[in-house]
Amino acid sequence: MQLPLTILALIGLASAQGAQGTGKTTRYWDCCKPSCAWPGKSTASTPVLTCDRSDNPLNDRGSTRSGCDSGGSAFMCSNQSPWAVNETVAYGWAAVNIAGSNEASWCCSCYELTFTSGPVSGKKMIVQATNTGGDLGNNHFDIAMPGGGVGIFNACTQQYGAPPNGWGERYGGVGSKSACASFPEKLKAGCNWRFDWFQGADNPDVRFRQVACPAAITAKSQCVRQRDVIDQTPTGPSTVPTWTP
Asked: Which residues form the Glycosyl hydrolases family 45 active site domain (predicted)?
């Protein structure tokens, strides 16, 4: 059966909107090289930028072994920590699992999260997918934030001398802003963000939709997807300062 042009147009419009729906969040910071930092994981010409043990950019096009592997020396860069853009919007990165999709589709894609529960209900955060969590459920965003818990893997001990299970609890991380004071200097702002802008929220639910990445995010990750289901051209300025109340 041949579909009418109006129906075909609506189908095309729906697909052009990219992934959207409802989901959940958790938090982590394991210091490991993100999965999307390996070459060939997406349509991007370059993978997610990683750093050496001293937090210097590697610019190796993804060839260095992860710090979570034996003999590895590639780690998450500290500047891929979340930050507040204004009182109600933040930018950051996350490990992602989208129902019915795969890593090739979500690596380096961006998603606008609207929090629907907890103290951040109504606030929005745009995250770029830089990692894939083997333990994540469907429509699950594991937001990267220093002090959020290392989870399954831990390269923070190797990179920063963190305790064997990372800072705080292995799952969940530290429990108060005061704990951030003992963090490495480059990770303190991201740790504080959790208790300031994020208001200590504990795994809030979200509505999400795929959006073009802000240039301020891709300037740090260096990963820009080519056009696919949506126009992936980064939007806005490449530098956005941290908002403080």
From this structure: 25-36
Tokens coding 77: 């860069």
Residues 6+ apart with CB under 8 A from 25: 94, 113, 115, 140, 141, 142, 143, 203, 204, 205, 206
Active site residue 52: no
pTM, to two decimals = 0.92
Q: Identify the active-site residue in 30, 52, 55, 231.
A: 30
**Cβ proximity of 137 and 12 under 8 Å:** no
Radius of gyration of the chain (CA): 18
Instruction: Quick: pLDDT tens for 166-224.
Output: 999 999 999 999 999 999 999 999 999 999 999 999 999 999 999 999 999 999 999 99
Indicate the burial class of 71 (C-beta count within 10 angstroms; 0-12, 13-18, 19 or more): exposed
